[in-house]
Amino acid sequence: MGVPTAPPARERTGQVALSAHGITKYFDGKAANDSVDFSARCGEVHALLGENGAGKTTLISVLCGQYRPDSGEIQVDGEVRRFSSPRDALRAGIGVVHQDLRQVDRFTVAENVVLGTAQRVDRRAEERVEEIAGELGFHLEPRAVVARLTVGERQQLEIVKLLFRGMSTLILDEPTAVLAPQQSEQLFGALRRLADSGKAIVFITHRLREVTSAADVVTVLRHGRVVAHRPVDGAQPEELARLMIGDEAGPRIKAEPAPTGEPVLELRAVACGTGRRSLHGVDLTVREHEIVGVAGVSGNGQVELAEVAAGMLEPDSGDRRAAGETVAFIPEDRLATGLVGSMTIAENLSFRRFRRAPMSSRFWLRYRRLRDHAHDLIERFRIPVTNDNAHVASLSGGGLQRVIVAREMTEAPELLVAAQPTRGLDVVSAQAVRRQLLDARNGGAGVLLVTEDLDELLELSDRIVVMLAGKIVAELPRGSATRAELGRHMTGAHGDEA
């Protein structure tokens, strides 16, 4: 089943529902948006494309009233509007589905939908929720407790909330970031139905596949500026990629198969935790010269698996065996698990070497050596800093990720556990990290790669295991895995996994 697409020659003539003119927004003297023009029409699915840091989220934050622009204006249905808060934007018919879904877990679906409105939670409200969901092909039970919903169902709930409030323009920020392929297809099918009913739909993405298959029009942002605005029909992925990132990405990575060696990690019947975020009888082996990828919808035990594999989390039962002395760990939660925010960038980069020469003698730390080491890593890994004595917490998400990757990848580990290693990185930096993962594998390390980017898994992995509800439910060797096959296992579509 493919994502529903608009007829190739279809001319979009709906009126402009939302437009921005000359939007400029500065942070710390740097323009996140620089004279941006943007418009969304009724009946149109509009993709806002750009790499991390291109200014997409800043623009959406301005359009929904979260930020006030330093200059420029917003128009709704041709009328200039000034938003002081997101509530003003909601009153104007503009609703946003954020990446971090803002829901009350212990409430029901219907209670979350009516929360903040004058409507009571009664049979009439439940019927309206059911009606909206049904029109979009969603299977949401109004009385279901939100804590028990899947990630895909929670995202459906956010859309129903906005439609319940009568929004005419819907903006979705990276809506497929944690969805399986089949869930993404269902979501884009619903967005197409909404556009056909006259809504203006905008979705933010950095994935070319989604733009070419689901959108009518694309606006490309780069370094805070609009570099292209055009119909998707006839647009080539290579052209969009060049507009988005320039010619810096380099050739595509080719991960040739290699003979594996001895096990560097063995998990046998490992169990820990309770509830959805737990492990249940996990068996897994990672060998030398091998990248084992882990696929799964967010929240199915991948974080726990990575922490157990790295030795950060002790299993409640079962056995973990790791060969060798050096285990490198790139955690999913950068600041809470991987770094100390109150310490400097240079100190965080040197954690693993504090106790070794030449960083220290018997009694003293050699700060000059520490800073020389930091300067080398900052240059090699393109860490965006001007002062290595600044606290690491002052960095952006992408900067934090670069610090962790730089520190862990330079230790020549026998086992490397990488959880979401390219999240928050631009294409060029992400490609560099992928090459380093491959270099580690080719150098003899065993790599456990946990990522929600299926293309990354398919590109790098020698084997892919799929996690569902804390269990490994499938193992697919190189060459036999496809996005569709992974998606079926991730969502439990195979009967023995449901």
Structure characterization notes:
- The protein is α/β, with parallel strands linked by helices.
- It folds into three domains: 16-245, Rossmann fold; 248-326 and 412-498, P-loop containing nucleotide triphosphate hydrolases (Rossmann fold, 3-Layer(aba) Sandwich), CATH 3.40.50; 339-408, no CATH class.
- The chain is built from 16 helices and 19 strands.
- Strands 6-7-8-3-9-10 form a six-stranded mixed β-sheet, with helices on both faces. A six-stranded mixed β-sheet has the order 15-16-17-13-18-19, with helices on both faces. A four-stranded antiparallel β-sheet has the order 2-1-4-5, with helices on one face.
- Helix 4 (123-135) crosses helix 5.
- The longest helix has 16 residues, at 181-196.
- The protein starts with 15 loop residues before the first strand and ends in an 8-residue tail after the last helix.
- The model is unreliable at 1-11 (pLDDT under 50).
